[in-house]
Amino acid sequence: MKTFFCTRLTTVVLTLLLLAGSGTASATAYGYSYINVFGLTISNPSGSISLINNIDLSRTTASLNGSGVIRGGNNQIDAPQAARGAVSKGQNDFTQQGFGGASYARGDAQIISSQIPPFPPGSTSTHTVNAAEVFLSGAGSADASGRNASSTALAINIVVGEPGATFAFDFQAVPYMQLYLDALAGTGSSATSNVGLSFTLIDANGQIAFSWAPDGTLGSGIVGGTELADGANLNASYAQTPLTSGKLLTYDPTGCGAPTGKGTGTDCGSQFSAITDNLAAGNYTLVLNMINSSELAYVPSSTPMSSPGTLALMAAGLAAVASMRPRRRAKP
């Protein structure tokens, strides 16, 4: 009887240990990057400036486990959403799809209105939105981007008696990012999210006359001009590796919170303003570039980790084994 009991005990315990070892917690990684720029006006406080032409660009990309797609391009103001995997968000819905379900990648970009040239007709300001979002459930890789840009050629003729022509930029913006890499991520895993916005004025010789990339610090990130308001860093990057995994990172410098509705609201945002130095006479190209991107790579850790469910199963099984101990018969 003793031999039978030991053999059966060993078999049950071994089975429970195998069950516990085979169960692993769900492996996940997530990245989301968003920016909403609205009320953007470009004015000409001094001097005389005329417009030659303008090219708008809206472009999106998405890639999941090696399968990628690129949408949009030059002379487009609303690139079709680039999507891979289980994407449930529709075109021009810039709010978060978030965690859960199967892996996916999506990039979306839209120029809602444009001051130069007026689109739709009569527009006096520019409103543009980007988003890039990726989610991995288990091992794999994913990346996405959304980009809106405008390249405008300008002819600047200095009015006699004035020191030079100047440009002034005023707008509001809401950047928002979230990033997560779980604690099961092994070597080779990484997660990054990026947001970027810049204005550049290039002269006929290819030299940069003015450059502005708002970074949340007044007087920083600008060359060839003066910054008057800089409410948040619009050129930021978040990154996670296995060394820093296990915590959800959120970037919300304006305090507006996660985008709601379709993510195109104009009721909250930080103020940004700058003016160029006096410009010499000549031809210039003004470039506005705005991009969001998120990238994930997930390699599960080689160390198996028991999930709470299997640990509970093991505990219950051991309790059952304990109850199987042979009872001694009472002596007559």
What's the helix-strand series?
HEEEEEEEEEEEEEEEEH
Mean pLDDT: 86
Largest sheet entry: 8 strands, antiparallel
N- to C-terminal separation? 21 Å
Strand pairing plus helix content: what structural class? mainly beta
Query: Tally of extended strands?
Result: 16
Over all CA atoms, what is the radius of gyration? 28 Å
Shape: elongated
Q: Estimate what percentage of residues fall within beta strands.
A: over 45%
Q: What helical percentage do the residues reach?
A: 10-25%
- Number of helical elements: 2
State the low-pLDDT regions, or none.
Answer: 1-24, 303-324, 326-332
Give a short synopsis of this structure:
By secondary structure, the protein is mostly beta strands. Helix content is 11%, strand content 48%.
Which properties best describe this structure?
332 residues, mainly beta, eight-stranded antiparallel beta sheet, 2 helices, 11% helix, disordered C terminus
Summarize the topology.
Layout lengths: L1 H21 L5 E16 L4 E17 L2 E8 L7 E4 L18 E10 L12 E12 L2 E18 L10 E14 L8 E14 L4 E5 L9 E2 L1 E6 L5 E5 L8 E3 L18 E7 L5 E17 L9 H16 L9
Antiparallel strand pairs: 1-6, 1-8, 2-3, 2-7, 4-5, 5-6, 7-16, 8-14, 8-15, 9-10, 9-13, 9-16, 10-11, 12-15
Helix pairs in contact: 1-2
Describe the fold and architecture.
- Strand 9 and strand 10 form a beta hairpin.
- The protein contains two helices and 16 strands.
- It is elongated, with a radius of gyration of 28 Å.
- The two termini are 21 Å apart.
- With 332 residues, it is mostly beta strands.
- The N terminus and C terminus are likely disordered.
- Strands 1, 4, 5, 6, 8, 12, 14 and 15 form an eight-stranded antiparallel beta sheet that branches.
- Helix 1 packs antiparallel against helix 2.
- It is 11% helix and 48% strand.
